[in-house]
Amino acid sequence: MRQTGHAAGGAPAARRPRDLRLDFFRGLAMFIILLAHTPGNSWTLWIPARFGFSDATEIFVFCSGFASSLAFGAVFAKKSWRLGAARIAYRVWQVYWAHICIFLATATLLFAIDHFGVGIEGHRHVTEPYVVPLFTRTGETLIGLFTLTYVPGLFDILPMYLVILAMVPIVMALHRAGGRGAVAVFVVTLWLASNLAGLGRMAQAGEEPGALVAALAPLGHALAWMNLPSNPFGGGTWFFNPFGWQLVFFTGFAFGMGWLPAPPVSRGLIRLALAIVLITVPFAWFKIHDGHYLPAGWVLHEWIVAVRGWTEPMWWKSWQGGLRFLHFLAVAYLAWVAVGPGGRRLTEGFRPPAPARAAWLAVAAVVALATIPYAYVDEIRRLSPALDGLLLETVPLVSGDRIGLLQLAHLAALVVLAWSAIGAARREAVARRWLPAAVPVIRKVGTQSLAVFMMSIPLAQVNGWLLGIMQPDVWNRAAVNLSGFAILIATAYMVSWFKSQPWRGSHVAPSHATEAESRKAGTSGGAAVQT
User: Can you give the pTM of this predicted structure?
Assistant: First the structure.
């Protein structure tokens, strides 16, 4: 790892550049997190979490670990452990107050919507997320908020993040004492212990645990302290257990510090990663394991449900189950390979896929036309209730649970037709120019992830409120979600501009003549004007 500071010859050493891929994928995670946190948002049906065990949270935590190695690792290595720990403490302090401000701002916003009666009729918005205790049991809630013993859903990522950040000095001390082996033992042991604590909690909850869970439950009960309390008036625990999630963070941290080498690019690893991702889909996608796309009586469906239930501790989210972590590693590897060495394809684009042949275009056209009644259900119902009844009630060609399959077919057909219709020149422009042009914008969001995340939490509630009071059609959903993306982008650029401190201007070193004149005039030093 290159060090900042000065080389032996006295010349400034080159600062280690930020990794293009780091900021790009962290920026993507910010957009996905906004969608996932927006109540009543149908776009969340298409985020990665619906098709696999891992989701944007893993992207955020992994990239944060990698970024922390760049931001703080050099301080430990170049300066001292004490100054590195102080730098971490300062960042923890910032994240702590960011968490407090996000909660208070969002709770006030939701209360205002209810108080002024501008929300959905008959609905209390302070119950989404559940911030009611702030207004009904204010004293206890405030104590819990400031002591991190009141951490309701939606406000649980930053507390997890700051606890993990506080572990960085421990990890750096272990590395200094015993190398990366000592770090690996610490990280893996802590992760395993947190999962045992999760098993103990599962057994305590009376969810009819299996033989393995029941056998490990006593050990899990002894580790119950690792399940941090999420409210001062109940038995809830933090949704994101930091002792489990630190595995993801310190994996990214280890790659950033150079403790773990980059994996090789090989067909075997690509096939293995792809197989893990595809095999996971039926066990993670609710449309399949809940019996929407597979009839509930089928043997295959029953087998999927049974395997999913038996392996639950291995894919649960709160304690970062082993299968969940494995799925994330597979997705991360495929993404790392896809963008090319150093993220080259993000800046240079890629070779556009060829359009479909005439026969396939004809099939796509038929599919697109035939599935229109099922792809635009809300729009047809609003424009013509009679036509809606004819298509979906009088002539029910497809069960309501299966409509989603036809919507997927409709979307795929439109993509095939549109890709062919735009022509070779525009296909080349999409692949070679438009994607590289979008990358800097996404990267900017990634570089200001804390500020963007702070904005996204209350913004998600505003977007949910707008979706609730507007007509639920494809255009309104697109307008709300795309406007939300635009606000996140504007936030990133605004914060970046403020951080650049443009009011300070460029610093120009005084010439020798100016210095001499200043000494003669007696104005050198303290008499200079301070800006």
Answer: 0.87
